[in-house]
Design a protein that fits this description.
By secondary structure, this protein is α/β, with parallel strands linked by helices. The protein contains eight helices and 15 strands. It is elongated and about 60 Å long. It binds magnesium ion (MG).
Length: 261
């Protein structure tokens, strides 16, 4: 029995599974095209805060990957919901992240405070970006130390790129936690909020698996909320993640096409 025949729906990680950096993996593109042809409900679930869900969908489609309507769920959305549930709209936050992330925060009714006005922040919202600097670290850490809620899209220390592991949100968050003495709430994988949002996106069919390239976030997080976890590891890849002790994926595959065999 093919792996795919065991499931009524799939949640699929993007980075390291469908794409590495800007490069789409041809196997993944073919496999997802086949999923679409079979009518199996699926959605992409990503901790990547780089783009809005609509921008992610556009980028995937431009790479030849079919995306259902509403078929991308991001950790930025779950982080914004978490902060709004806790504090309500109209609050001020120190925001660390890409322009796209900051735009999403602003559109949700959360005001970004200037870095030198960190005293006005009731939240510190953290998401990885490649221009992180000392001024952001200082404002985020001082606000969190003074009692602002500290929350982040992810805790992955690295992200897979064609030339190896680049520092991820977790590395930036670790600097802020170290400097502030505060501990963040994380809303992305492996924590439950984002899996719940993914299940909602595919209409909660019967048996669902999460497919990802990290056993500590994708597989362990899925299993903790009662889903199966499928680990993709491409042995030839510089981005291949080592297994994690105590995590036992329900299936291990080398390519998304292995789902059909
Ligand atoms: Mg990944």
């Amino acid at each position: 029995m093919a792996i795919i025949d065991r499931y009524d729906g799939l949640l699929i990680d993007i980075d390291g599974v469908v794409r590495v950096g800007d490069e789409f993996l041809p196997d993944a593109r073919d496999a997802i095209t086949e999923l679409e042809a079979r009518g199996l409900p699926y959605a992409f679930v990503t901790n990547s805060p780089r783009l809005t869900p609509a921008e992610h969908a556009e980028e995937l489609r431009a790479g030849g990957v079919p995306v259902p309507d509403g078929g991308v769920v991001t950790a930025a959305e779950t982080l914004i919901s978490f902060i709004l549930d806790l504090t309500g709209a109209g609050i001020g936050a120190v925001v660390v992240g890409t322009d796209s992330f900051r735009r999403q925060v602003a559109e949700a009714g959360i005001e970004e405070v200037a870095l030198d006005r960190w005293e006005d922040a009731t939240a510190v919202m953290v998401s990885g970006h490649d221009r992180f600097d000392y001024g952001e670290l200082k404002a985020a850490a001082m606000a969190a130390r003074a009692g602002a809620v500290l929350a982040a899209t992810g805790s992955d220390p690295t992200m897979p790129m064609p030339d190896g592991h680049w520092p991820g949100t977790g590395s930036i968050l670790a600097a802020i936690e170290t400097a502030s003495g505060a501990q963040a709430t994380v809303t992305g994988k492996p924590f439950p909020a984002i899996f719940e949002a993914g299940l909602e996106a595919i209409g909660r069919p019967g048996k669902v698996a999460m497919i990802g390239d990290r056993s500590d976030t994708d597989v362990a997080g899925a299993q903790a909320v009662g889903l199966d976890g499928i680990l993709v590891s491409r042995p030839e890849s510089a981005s291949a993640q080592p297994g994690v002790e105590g995590v036992d994926p329900d299936h291990r595959i080398g390519s998304l096409l292995d789902l059909f065999s």
